[in-house]
Each structure stands twice: as C-alpha cells, then as structure tokens.
Specification:
This protein is α/β, with parallel strands linked by helices. It contains 14 helices and five strands.
C-alpha cells in the first residue's frame, strides 16, 4: 500500500505561541542577506555586520554605543530595525531571548558521539521514508497546481529559503516563474495581492513559522498548502492541504535531518515530476 505524503490526522496540539511574528523568526536570515547582497560601505551592511559580530551579547547592546562604533545616527539604526521587521532597536534586542535555546541545540547536535555515522543513518532512514511517502499521486497534483497557477509563491524562512531558491532557479528551465517570500513579510505586496488563481506554499518544519505567519495568509484567497513536521489539527483549518514530511511528529527537535535535507529532497522530486509532465 502506498504511503501518502498528504494525510489529515487529528492530534492533540502541542501548544503554540500565537504572539510570534513572522519577521522576528528570520533575524539571522535577514542579517546575512544584507551582508551577502550589499556593499561594505553601505550603512545597512555596517549595522548588519556589527550585530552579527556581537550576536552573543545582542541583548546588552546600547543604541548610543552602536551609533558611535558604526558611525551612524540613532535614526539610521531605528530605520534599519524597521526595515527587517522590528518596531525599534529594543524590539531587535528582545529577539536575543531565543538565542540561548538555539545555541544549546546546535552545540548539542554537533557534539553527539559518532556524529558522522549517526547523521548518515538518520539521512538514510529519512530518504527511505520520504521515498515511500512521496510515491503517490499527490506529487503530480502539486506539480500540476504549480503549472496551472498564475503565481506560485513559497513562504518560508531560514534554511528552507535556500532550497527554494535553488528550486526557483531550476524551474526557469521549465519556463515557470516561482516566487519566494523569506523576509520582510509584513505588508508584502505579493502576498497581499494573491488571488484564487494563485498557489501559496508555506514551509515550516517545526510549525513555529506556520503559527507566526498565519496572520499573513489568513485572508488570502489563494490555494494554500503547508509542508511541515508538526502535527496540529488547526493547520487543517488554516490550509487547503497539509503535507507531513514524516509519519511521526518530529517537530520537537530543533535540528533534524528532515528540516535540513528533507525539504531539498522533496523539491527535487517535485521538480522532476514537473519536468517530465509539463516541459513542452
């Protein structure tokens, strides 16, 4: 019997913080985007570089010291913070409250005994499961929906954004434009103007981004799909379809192979399906 990637399951909600904002989740992504895409002399580059170098003590920074050390005005700092989704400098500093948990997770993950063999085994098991779960008509349905939609927009953050960018570029060979929203989500014109002819795909491995981004998609008239590891019945109300990358809820782990490698695998399979069926 084929295992479907898309299934509707009713599970007890593990709890969520509906006060999270989508912009806040992408702080590191936003800072590195500025570093990667701007000239060193640009004031935004200078500020992003400074915040990254002082990320360990971000919550202790003083706006006066930042202004002096970066040779910018306090108004420039406030504009910078607004440009990446924070109301002010204090709002950016509060983001540091999530740092310790993430730091501990990354350190614990990297220091595991027999890391290489453990990682290899986890990836192999993940590939076997995804191979079973994606051996279904749903892969064709996703590819066809991408083909038939006026706009296909991916809404995500962090590592997944990089995989979507690769998918975005490869789909040009199929003469299909794919759009990506991975930062500066609030008042995004592309999201606001989606219609019933459009296809919105949210990728949220742990579910945190799905909760935070719900206000952005709640009124959207587009066809909405969620790809996640989190099992929460509320997602079935928010989205037309929910695809679970695993048969088990693996969202509790901050770092897992499904989030880092599974999304890439899934997009490659969808790309192949699209190319075989719709590249004329």
């Amino acid at each position: 019997m084929k295992c479907k990637c898309l299934q509707t399951h009713k599970f007890h909600s593990p709890g969520r913080d509906n006060g999270l904002k989508a912009n806040r989740i992408s702080l590191l992504h936003s800072l590195f985007s500025i570093i990667n895409e701007n000239d060193e002399s640009d004031s935004n580059y200078v500020l992003a570089h400074y915040f990254l170098n002082h990320y360990h003590e971000l919550d202790q920074l003083n706006i006066y010291d930042v202004a002096d050390e970066c040779f910018v005005s306090r108004a420039s700092i406030r504009r910078f913070c607004k440009s990446i989704g924070y109301e002010n400098f204090l709002g950016l500093k509060h983001e540091f409250s999530t740092y310790d948990d993430r730091y501990q997770s990354y350190m614990k993950h990297a220091k595991k005994d027999n890391f290489r063999q453990s990682l290899t085994n986890e990836i192999n098991e993940m590939i076997k499961e995804l191979d079973r779960r994606m051996n279904t008509r749903e892969v064709y349905n996703i590819a066809k929906q991408i083909k038939d939609s006026r706009h296909t927009v991916f809404l995500t953050t962090g590592t997944s954004a990089g995989f979507v960018k690769e998918f975005q570029q490869s789909m040009i060979f199929n003469k299909k434009m794919i759009y990506l929203v991975s930062e500066l989500y609030s008042d995004n014109e592309l999201l606001l103007n989606l219609s019933e002819d459009d296809f919105l795909i949210t990728i949220s491995n742990t579910g945190t981004f799905a909760y935070a981004s719900f206000p952005l998609i709640s009124e959207s008239k587009s066809q909405k799909t969620l790809i996640t590891l989190r099992r929460d019945p509320i997602f079935n109300e928010w989205y037309d379809k929910v695809y679970h990358l695993s048969a088990e809820d693996k969202s509790k782990s901050d770092i897992n192979v499904y989030g880092k490698y599974g999304v890439s695998y899934m997009l490659d399979v969808i790309y192949s399906e699209y190319t075989k069926n719709f590249n004329n």
